[in-house]
Design brief:
Helix content is about 30%, strand content about 25%. The protein is α+β, with helices and mostly antiparallel strands. It has one domain: Roll (SH3 type barrels), CATH 2.30.30.
Length: about 130
Amino acid sequence: MKRFIALFALLSCFVTHADPALAQNQRAFVHTIVNLRAGPGMRYPTLTQIHPGEIVQLLGCIEGRSWCEVETTGTRGFMSGAFLSITDTSGLTDDQAMLVPVVSFNQKEYWQEHYSDRPFYRQSQPRYKSRR
């Protein structure tokens, strides 16, 4: 019976926090200097650095939770989930990660929405030669 109650409580938390609107209010701690990037991977441009002890808004993580979408001081981007936690312990635990919604990433749409004023956005656009 105790297991059932514990499972029910855990599932209730998951359902409550799976709503992206609620996730926008999820605060998370950064544990080391980390680059905030324009996409989920090292190949994306660095937007800024986040320092140990800073608190960010955790918006969600991609499948597998290796990269998470966060917002800090008006800048939105992705950082490694390994340097982020919901509590003041290092890294996202499996229990914490269950509370974080899964987000998808489409570079074209994401960059258009969040980075259209950045130099790297203009440089990434295909250049078409006019035919004569």
